[in-house]
Amino acid sequence: MVLKFKYGIAALLLSISADITAQPSTDLQLSQSLVGSWTVSKADTYYGQEGHVSTYRKDGTLQYIQYTSGKCNSIDSITNGSWLIKDGQLMLTVTESNGKNPFPIGIVVTEKIVTIDDNSFVFLSSEGRKVRRTRSNKCL
Known about the structure:
Layout: H1 2-22, H2 27-34, E1 36-40, E2 52-56, E3 61-67, E4 75-86, E5 89-99, E6 108-116, E7 120-124, E8 130-135
Antiparallel strand pairs: 1-2, 1-8, 2-3, 3-4, 4-5, 5-6, 6-7, 7-8
Signal peptide: 1-22
Organism: Pseudoalteromonas rubra
Protein name: Lipocalin-like domain-containing protein
């Protein structure tokens, strides 16, 4: 009985450590995981209300396409900028923004990364809201 208990504890600890190590932990690992396009997740509070696609490129540039609604049938604005991850924080700097509701040039937005994997990206926005994204180059 004691032996089974010890093996059970060992198995539990190994599975927990595997989950922890499976998550990217360094800024470089987070950056590599972030590269690609992301849109509003079905699990996000604003799914169906907001529509946008954020594309993070390997060279540290980004493009953010904002649609007028969650239906994604009309572009509101297109914003370009740069991105960098430092100490688990995603820092975005706007270098160009055009459209009906452009962002101010030079604005820097910092977001705290919670988790990121092959298909989902969760972060705390600068306003403190938990934001959920799904990997996709199409506005869903």
